[in-house]
Amino acid sequence: MTVQSAVRRGEVTVRDLSKSFTLNGRRLDVLRGIQLDVDGGEALAIVGPSGCGKTTLLRVLAGIEPPDDGSVLIDGRPVQGIGTERAIIFQEPRLLPWLTVLGNVSFGLQVRGTPKAEAESRARHYIRLVGLGDFESAYPRQLSGGMAQRVGIARALTVQPEILLLDEPLGALDAMTKLTMQEELARIWREENVTLILVTHDLEEAIVLADRVLVLPKEKGAASRVIDIDLPRPRDRSEARFVAMRRRLMAEFGLH
Amino acid sequence: MVSLDTTSLAIRSQAGTAGALLGRSTAVVGQTARRYGLLAGFLLAWQIGSTYGWINPTVFPPLDRILAATWSGVAGGALIDDVAISLQRSGLAFAAAVGLGVPLGLFMGQIRSVEQALDPILQFFRQTSALALYPVFILLLGLGEASKVFVIFWATLFPILLATIGGVKEVDRKLIEMAATFGASRSTIFRKVVLPASVPSIFVGLRLSATTALLLLIAAEMIGANKGLGFQVMNAQYNFQIPQMFAAILLLALLGLSANAALVALQRRLCRWDDAAR
């Protein structure tokens, strides 16, 4: 107990994690022998070629999928399914079309039994934080893709998780919106003091947001590599060190 | 996107106040003419054709005589009893079908094994015409109210049931997963995700059933009834009271229109978020 109180909240430890699926009667290894340590308040990006299991890893961390083997610990306690200290942001906004922006953002708190008035007042704070203060009473069909994704982000933040899990959250957005949203996510992470674990296939996005990048190999069981992004924040994409870091990450994938 | 919409709306409304009121009322008249012009033309052709004998006025009496017969039937109270009993029969059956079909459909749609076990028998019943089964219901329940209400109930149950099951089954799994990641229990997911998501398709079933209810009502009242609008249509025809026959038909049409309008209004209220309902 004394050890736990010494560590910062939102610490994630993964040991010997394995996960396989059965597809058409064949066993398909998705993750094998994964080790991972994420400090409380850290921002970690997980990148890797498609099929490397990065989304599956995130879903196991979220508690949506149980691991076959190995363990996931959060603040030293083993994870059992979904937990209130974690929130996940999906690639699609997954908004409820019959609720307004306010209804969607306060949804997470309301299903946890927070009284409506309190849930809404907390939701309003995060709606303003993602820049949608004027759209509280808009319905999802009235929002653009970027706005809808902001609502999804605000909904996850409103439950004040220790750990924010993001599964390619900007993958479906157009290039311009994506750039803006990357900067906003970086700002939100700084302001909210939350552990951030981001799955992405966008190397630049990983460098803008993360303290460290975990590169998952395609071959199952091969060692994964962790690269420190020791660049000052906020990060400047045009800076020489940023460009050098990008080149280095691309080299990890055999690209030049 | 939205901000753009509001700007263009603002510009449009400014143009509206700047422009003459005349322009707007012309637009309304034009819209009404487009929507109801054909119907008005049809009624006018009927009236003129019948008055001048271009169509057989004994089969198609002029509209003023039909309206007069309707008025005297309603004002004199002769047709009111028929409307009341018809409403009672179809309303009772429809309410029972909703009361059973919606909860059962919500349950069946959620539990795959139940749905799979019941689907073949449901499909079989659905494909068996309720009218073909009417003699069976008469044998079982007699020629009174029970068999009439039951045959309407039977025919209206299946559209509601199948639409509800379909609605529940088509709820986006990703929304359910999203709710689960916030720690929502099964019953919370049902109340806050599955139920609201199913409402639009439940309404499709309700509207289909309302139409079916009136259809079956007429058929049931044509066999062994001595009251009701369906009976009046048949009775007036036997007695060659053609305006009275059309009066009963007109009232049936109005009944159908108002049932549908009530459901549409309710649907608009409950599904403001749904594009299809607007």
Q: How is this structure best described in words?
A:
The complex is a heterodimer of chains A (256) and B (278). Chain A has helices at 2-6, 54-62, 101-105, 107-111, 116-129, 145-158, 175-192, 203-209, 240-252; strands spanning 12-23, 26-38, 43-47, 69-74, 77-78, 86-89, 163-167, 195-199, 212-215, 225-228. With 256 residues, chain A is of the alpha/beta class. Chain A has two domains: 2-85 and 163-252, 3-Layer(aba) Sandwich (Rossmann fold); 95-160, no CATH class. In chain A, the strands form two sheets. In chain A, strands 6-7-8-3-9-10 form a six-stranded mixed beta sheet, sandwiched between helices. In chain A, helix 7 links the parallel strand 7 and strand 8. The model of chain A is unreliable at 1-7 (pLDDT under 50). Chain B has helices at 2-18, 21-51, 63-75, 80-110, 112-127, 130-141, 145-169, 173-181, 186-222, 229-238, 242-270. Chain B folds into two domains: 2-60, no CATH class; 74-277, MetI-like (MetI-like fold). Chain B is mainly alpha-helical. The A-B interface holds A 62-64, 82-84, 86-88, 90, 92, 94, 96-99, 107-108, 110-112, 135, 138-144, 147, 159 and B 1-2, 5, 172, 174-175, 177-184, 188, 192-193, 196-197, 199, 271-275.
Describe the structure concisely for a colleague:
Chain A has helices at residues 2-6, 54-62, 101-105, 107-111, 116-129, 145-158, 175-192, 203-209, 240-252, and strands at residues 12-23, 26-38, 43-47, 69-74, 77-78, 86-89, 163-167, 195-199, 212-215, 225-228. By secondary structure, chain A is of the alpha/beta class. Chain A is globular.
Q: In which range does the helix fraction of chain B lie?
A: over 70%
Shape of chain A: globular
- Quick check: average pLDDT of chain A? 91
For the largest beta-sheet of chain B, the strand count, sense and barrel status come to:
none
Shape of chain B: flat
CATH superfamily of the largest domain in chain B: MetI-like
Runs of chain B with pLDDT <50, length 5+? 1-16
SS element count, helices of chain A:
9
- How does CATH name the architecture of the largest domain in chain A? 3-Layer(aba) Sandwich
Give the structural class of chain B: mainly alpha
